[in-house]
Specification:
seven-stranded mixed beta sheet; about 170 residues; Aminopeptidase; alpha+beta; 7 strands
Length: about 170
């Protein structure tokens, strides 16, 4: 069984050829409000990240996978804040604007959840979702994540502080 692909997409580690695309995505300031980015990434920093992406999740405590469709990279999905003792990880996803609303995020999140629960033996995945990010709320809901709480005034925006939903998916299989 290949946990990281289906008939439409494949999840793979970043390659040197992904540098320009990762540089574009990471430095898109319109996306910074959804994550924790406070400043641009340099090409050098991303090149070093790609060079070290061979480190396993237990060593690096994170795993970034490129979402690929027909050999074209179209997004990334990340496991981060990986906690092997408590068998949990945060998950985040980015789909290129040109490929959104086509079900790709649902497929990628389903694949990474299956991989996390079956292969990594995680007990839970969780995500932080700004309350006004309707597409993300719908995506995580479709993929079996339930809202476990609200983090009040969690992130700052140009309009002031914004609440964030804390969503979890528990692996129901022992």
């Amino acid at each position: 069984m290949n946990f990281l692909q289906n008939n439409h997409i494949r999840l793979r580690t970043p390659e040197p050829e992904d540098l320009d695309l990762l540089y574009t995505w990471e430095n898109d300031t319109s996306l910074w409000a959804w994550g924790n980015t406070l400043s641009p990434y340099s090409r050098y920093t991303l090149k070093e990240y790609i060079a070290n992406s061979h480190r396993n999740i237990y060593e690096a405590r994170q795993l970034r996978l490129v979402i690929e469709q027909r050999t074209s990279p179209i997004g990334t999905i990340d496991l981060y804040d990986f906690d092997p003792h408590n068998r949990r990880s945060a998950v985040g996803i980015l789909i290129d604007a040109s490929c959104r609303r086509k079900g790709i995020a649902t497929e990628a999140l389903t694949l990474v959840a299956d991989y996390s629960f079956s292969f990594l033996k995680l007990h839970q995945l969780y995500a932080y979702i700004p309350v006004n990010n309707e597409p993300s709320k719908a995506l995580f809901g479709r993929c079996g994540f339930g809202i476990a709480g609200i983090l009040r005034d969690w992130i700052t925006t140009d309009q002031g502080f914004l609440d964030v939903l804390f969503a979890q998916r528990i692996n129901e299989k022992p």
